[in-house]
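Check out one such.
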Amino acid sequence: MAEAHQAVAFQFTVTPEGIDLRLSHNALKEIYLSGIRAWKKKCIRIKNNFASGVYPASPSSWLFVVLTVLGTMYTRIDPSMGMIGKLKDHLPLRRYMSHQGQNLVSALLFATGLWLALIFVMRQILKCLLSYHGWMFEEHGKVSTTTKVWFTLVKIFSGRKPMLYSFQNSLPRLPVPSVNDTLRRFLESVRPLMNDEDFRRTKALAKDFERNLAPRLQWYLKLKSWWATNYVSDWWEQYVYLQGREPIMVNSNYYAMDFLYVTPTTSQAARAGNLVHALLLYRRRLTYEEIPPSTLPGFPIPLCSAQWERMFNTTRLPGEETDFIQHRVDSKHIVVYHKGRYFKVWVYQGGRLLNPCELQVQFQYILDENSSPQPGEKYLAALTAGNRWFDKSFTFIVFANGKVGLNAEHSWADAPIIGHLWEYALATDSFQLGYDDDGNCKGEADTTLLLPQRLQWDIPKECQEVIMYSLKVAQKLAEDVDFYAFPFTKFGKGMIKKCRTSPDAFIQIALQLANFRDKGSFCLTYESSMTRLFREGRTETVRSCTVESSNFVTSMESEKFSVDECLNLFRIAAKNHQHISRLAMTGCGVDRHLFCLYVVSKYLGVNSPFLQEVLSEPWCLSTSQTPIQQIELFDLINHPEYISIGGGFGPVADDGYGVSYIIVGENLINFHISCKVSSPLTDAHRFGKHIIQAMSDILALFNLDARKP
């Protein structure tokens, strides 16, 4: 293989005259440039860590404090109230310094200490400010004076030009709710799902748990919350994701899809070239921390950025009892799978990223290469369930017609993180990089690039048998997925806002109505909510099936209620949904607290019938909204066709639905529905029709046409 020889820095041959050593200058140059790039990245990382470490102050503010202290000293004013003199008396090398030198060193030490103290105070003030969430519970459009003052103080103490991780040390810790509050909210959430006898039984179990076992478990949980950065996240990652023994395909991984109406090019290699380059540009921005920290939509409130750290160079390593996440600081290549074969593609040349047209050449070489898979290679990835490698942080898929998709492993991060990457990649592909008239990547390719290197495998026969068995499991799992994605175009966020209600509450209540019409009963409903207002926060559950939403659904299915009565019940349900959503975001949800109490009980070796029963209940309706986080990257007015259909996930329960939705602009909502073919109770297309009808029926209650002037 000629391309393999080019990568060797030197070759030697033993002859009778001695050793004939031949150096490859090109390879040595690449090694040199690679080292320069690695050291450059290390220096940038050190600089960024220092800048984030002193935030909300800036490194240049140290010079300002030093000059101020020195300036006051020359006016014979001691700003240190004697501390500079004491430092001067205790300098270890003072006898080797002049009097003026001693004064200068002492002043520098005092100024540095003062600067660090000011940083600590500013950070603590900002942390206290960010711990206040009362503003979130105020009525929409009515901002109190307290909230206005609070917003002003947050802006003052948030500093200027933050980098991705600047706010990490200023974010508050996730609070542990009281057991009484959690159990009260839990009982409220299950009331519409139980008859009177079952509810009395559950209430008795909860009361017994609160009196006897809960105080002991809660004490350990409080202890952890004082010591650990986040009392939930590490256990959630470990026990929910890494110790899960089911295939992560369908059951855990989630996906993102391409533009809904547009395919920028039909060339598979060109689309791969542009998008891979866009992904690598994003990785460079991530390395340099040039990505602005996420904030709460519509508010200058920072969110935790910790999940970005493992976006690239990360994989999930399998183990017998638990898996592990491996993250490498850097990687210089990608692996490409095509027709059962694996290729290693270098993405750097001469210390720079390959441009899109150079990547297109690499991918076209793989498409044209007609070698056969080695024994066991074709279905090797079935060991992680599929023909794709499902335990990578994310896998990028390019289809023959130019359409693209993405599959993400769930343990390292949640959907909004990968969604941010995907928005950037799609926008950069179409609006920044673009294609020529023939659909190829723009630019010129370096003809001396190393060609892709075919990976070599030695797979024993026993292992091949295991691979084929895993393939059958994966195929059976994939064939059991019923999937339906559709754009809802009758109305969108703009029309819902005219109803003076939350778009998310509107959709969630519509899902309750659709589910009742689909199955004839209510079910335990999961809506994902983020807790990234807190450091290392991930998600919390909003239990969307409530007494209030059930009352509304019942009224819609009964002829005894008038339109006005139904509308009033809807408003009550929507207001309650907003309230429980805000509770979940501010650390007062139900499920993560109960989950952690259960983990503590297992560590202590005690059994709780209440916790065992609660955590074994299936989520027959699992829902999540995928937010658009970088709307500025897309021109929805002039180019409404450049919108992604979003993404989704598999069903959680055997007889349940998985529903993902993305609100795009003012007039479009995309829905993704999944369920299992094997269940006689579910049908994705049928449920989609129920959603469309429920959305329309709820809007009709407001009679907006009659209210127009």
About this structure: The chain has five domains: 2-53, 59-161, 177-244+590-617, 249-479, 481-586+618-703.
